[in-house]
Amino acid sequence: MPYDSTSIVLTNITKIFTNGKRQITALTDINISIGDGEFFSIVGPSGCGKTTLLRILAGLDIATSGNVDIQITADDRPVNSMVFQEQSVFPWLTVIDNVAYGLKLRGIPKKERYQTAENFLRMIGLTKFAKAYPHQLSGGMKQRVSVARAFANDPEILLMDEPFGSLDEQNRILLQQELLRIWELSKKTTVFITHSIDEALCLSDRILIMTAHPGTVKTIIDVDLPRPRDVASIRTSMRYNELFQLIWLTLREEVLKVHDRDFDNPS
Amino acid sequence: MKTAISILSPLTLLLFWEAGAFLGFVDTRLLSSPWMILHSFFPLVISGDLIYNTWVSVVRVIWGFIAGAIPGILLGMSMGLSPFVRSAIEPMIAATYPIPKLAIMPLILLIFGLGETSKIFTIAIGVFYLVVINTMAGVLNIDKIYLEVAKNFGASRKDFYLTVALPGALPMIFAGLKLGMGMALILIVAAEMSAAKAGVGWMIWRAYDMFDIEQMFAALITLSILGYIFTLLLDWLEHMVLPWKQGN
């Protein structure tokens, strides 16, 4: 691994959901270590437990067994900040207060947290909208605010659960490029969930492919594309196409498993 | 055009009323006439009688409203956020809510006597139920995602209340406050009719005793104006604290 130190180590993570007397194994025996400053993506067929894994990392769910170890470099720094899949900016806060939310909870004085928030607003091009409320923004702008909120909180690791999944393609490409730019400035360890192979390739250092339900590690692929990347031109490179093929063929087996299972037992 | 109709239609009704009274179709002993009401309205204002009694009622409504709304908001938020508090309190609220508040007024009079406390308490009870139920519903209706964001950003118990539950439930809290204001006006009149020495409700009852129909109508008009002013105040307050609501 090209990283000086590891940021996240997951050992034997298993998650079992109990629903009455039925037990559903969502994740089984997951072992991963993610390097400090790495952009790590997770892809897998729907229902493979990607989101569950991210929620365990976020501390929103607890693993049934196994160990989550996240390296702490500063005591006053939050462990993680998450960018959620759906609309999650607070409608009752202005754009700048949304971005500064994490800082406010940590008791950082108003002037200081507004300074930080303004920096990130400038990076995502929403300076003019600092005092606007979310209902005045488009979907893409709201997701920008959500991304800025996570970065502004300055956590050890960033977690993103298909943050651009609900956007149209043009906005998605714009936001991918912006995310890359901010990430390259901050070099934060990032775990990113997506169902798009293309998105994973454009953004990541490594891509974890998960098996169909119950989810576990199928394989991890190194994305040896040069950085800094331009999401538009990277798609034309030879290596991008080879990797796309490789990931799709690996993923395809798992997707077909789900497909066949659904076909055999139509609900 | 629409405004013109909205202004003309009540004026027409008043005109018919006046004409009916003048021509003898309307029994002025029971229904009076707009002119006669206006004629007795101004002396009541100038003598200070109407203003004094209105003031007495307004003070009772405001105190009762505050005494009911604040505990209602606090308890409603706790019930919304904590399943434990909800399970403990909800059955009691559900069991006592359907009791008409007027039915417990004699009991309140026995407990608190004939003074101000009994009127304020009656109003507070009526307001409390509407506010607590709406506040709880408001908190429960907050999209779960916002609670998760707060949790992910390390929110303390206080942060959950102040940064998510309160702002998220405010639209519903205001719905409860507005319903509560209507209830407060019903209850103040009822309370003042049965046991009071002043107030708009008492004026109506005195007018009944003295068979002074004009004074009765003057009191009714005052109540209508009061209700309108309170609604405007709540609308204004809502506008001030909910700048993020669409359409505001």
Question: In brief, what are we looking at here?
Answer:
With 267 residues, chain A is of the alpha/beta class. Chain A has helices spanning 50-58, 95-99, 101-105, 110-123, 139-152, 169-186, 197-203, 238-264, and strands at 6-19, 22-35, 39-43, 65-70, 80-83, 157-161, 189-193, 206-210, 217-222. Chain A is globular.
**Total separate domains of chain A:** 2
Unreliable spans of chain A? none
Low-confidence stretches of chain B: none
Structural class of chain A: alpha/beta
Largest sheet of chain A: 6 strands, mixed
Helices of chain A, by number, come to 8
Task: Tell me about this structure.
The complex is a heterodimer of chains A (267) and B (248). Chain A has 8 helices and 9 strands. Chain A has helices spanning 50-58, 95-99, 101-105, 110-123, 139-152, 169-186, 197-203, 238-264; strands at residues 6-19, 22-35, 39-43, 65-70, 80-83, 157-161, 189-193, 206-210, 217-222. The longest helix of chain A has 27 residues, at 238-264. Chain A is globular, with a radius of gyration of 19 Å. With 248 residues, chain B is mainly alpha-helical. Chain B has 11 helices and no strands. Chain B has helices spanning 2-23, 28-31, 34-46, 49-81, 83-96, 105-112, 116-140, 144-152, 157-194, 200-209, 213-241. The radius of gyration of chain B is 22 Å and the shape is elongated. Chain B starts with a helix and ends in a 7-residue tail after the last helix. The model of chain B has no long low-confidence stretch (mean pLDDT 93). The chains are: A alpha/beta (267), B mainly alpha (248). Chains A and B meet through β5 and α3 of A and α8 and α9 of B.
